[in-house]
Give the backbone structure.
Amino acid sequence: MARCKPVIRTFFSDQRKGLSVNVTVENLAPCKKLVRVEVEAKAVDETFDSVTKDFQKQAALPGFRPGKAPRDMVLRKYEKDIQDEVKRKLISDAYHKAVEEQKLEVLGRPDIEEIQFNRGQPLLFAATIETAPDFQLPEYKGLPVKQESRSVTDKDMTRALDALRQQRVDFKTVERAAQAADIAVVNYTGTCDGKPITEIAPTAKGLTEQKNFWVEMLPGSFIPGFADQLTGAKAGDKRTVNVEFPADFVTPQLAGRKGVYEVEVVEVKEKILPALDDEFAKAYGAENMEKLREGVRHDLENELKYSQSKNVRSQLVRALLDRVSFELPESAVAQETRNVVYDIVRDNQKRGISRAQIEQEKERIYTAATRGAKERVKAAFLMRKIAEKEDIKASQEEISQRIGALATTYQIPPEKFVKDLQKRNGVMEIYDQVMNEKVMDFLQQNAKIEEVPAGTLSPEPVPAASGNP
C-alpha cells in the first residue's frame, strides 16, 4: 500500500531573500507531517532591522514629522507590533520556502506552533500539515470496459410517443367498473396494527386519510397491491384493502409492516389519449408527425449515447479505484463526508422525510456517506495525477463557459455568480470539474471497449470525483 514519503532532512539557502533555514520533516500519520523549521539568528536580527525601518518611515509621533521619529522611540511605541510583523514575515517566508524546497503538496492550512522567537536567537517553529497522498499511478490507458450494442428501436419510439401522449391525456368519468389503466377516485382511511397510521408515523398524514384521491389502476401504483384490489369496483362501492409496505418504503416506520385501508370509490375515470396525428405534432412545435418522429428519434439517440458514455465512464472510474490502494488525507475525507451527508439529507427532505426520521438513521447515513466520500476523494486524486502526467488543463475560456452555463441554469446574473464563487473559493471547484471531465474524455478515448449484447450490463453507480480534495 502506498504511503506518504519517509522522514527527510535537508539544509538549504535562499540567496534571493538571504534566508537560510534548516528543515526536518517527520511523518506523524499517513499523509500528515510535522515540519520543523529553524531560521538562523542573523536572519531574525536582519528582519527586525528591516521591519523597524519600515515602521520608522510611517510612524507619526508627537513633535516629529512623519518618518523622522528616532528609532528608539519607534521601538518603544511599536515594540509589540514590530515583533508580530517580524514573526509573521519570518514564519510565512520560511514555511513557504520549506514547502517549496521539499516539494510538499499541502492540503489546507498548516497548524503552526511557535517554539522559540527572540532577537539574537534562531527562530524555531513547527508546522503540522496534511499532504496529498504519494502513490504510483496504475496503468490507465487501455482500461477494459464493456458497452452494450444498442440502437433506438421501434419499441423505444412507441414508448417515447406514448409518454408524450400521456402528457396530454384527458379523463372521462364512466359508469362502469374500474379496470386496468383507469383512474379510481377514492376516499380512504388507513390503519396499521389496528392503530391510525399517524400513531406509528406521525408525519404520514397522507397515508392515514385522504379524500378524492386519484389511484391509477396499474400494478405498484400508490402502495403495491392497493390498486389491484380495486379492480371491478364501481362508484359507490366500498372495499377493505390489505397491503404490505415494502422494506424500502419511503416512510421507515412502516417499512415491512402490514396496513389495512377502508376504501370508498367515488368515481371511475377513463384515460383518453390523443391520436398520433399532425394536430398532435403541432402541439409539440413540430410541422407534422413525420417531423415529430424525427425529433423524437434524435432525442432518443442522444439519450442513448449519453447513457452508454456514462456507463463506460463509471466502469473506468471503478477500474482505476480497484487498481491502486493508498492512504487518504483525513481532512479531505471528512470534508467530502460532510458534503455527501448534506446531499443525502437534502434528498431525503425532498422526499418528505422528517428531521426526526433522518436523526434516527444518522449512523447509517454517516457510514454510507463515509464510504462514498472515500471513493470520491480517491478518484479525485487519481484524476489530478493523470491530468499532471498528461498535461491536461482547463483553459480560462472553458472555465468561463462553464460558469456562464451554470449562471444560466440557476438564473443568476453571471457577475453575481462569479462573486459568489470567489467568496467560497468555488472557481477552483469549477476548474477541477472541467479538468476531471477532460481526463475522463482522455480515458474514454484510450479505453479498450468491448461490445456486448443489449441487456448484458447492470451498472453499479460509482461516485464521481469530488471537485477539490
Summary: The chain has three domains: 8-131, 170-272, 286-453.
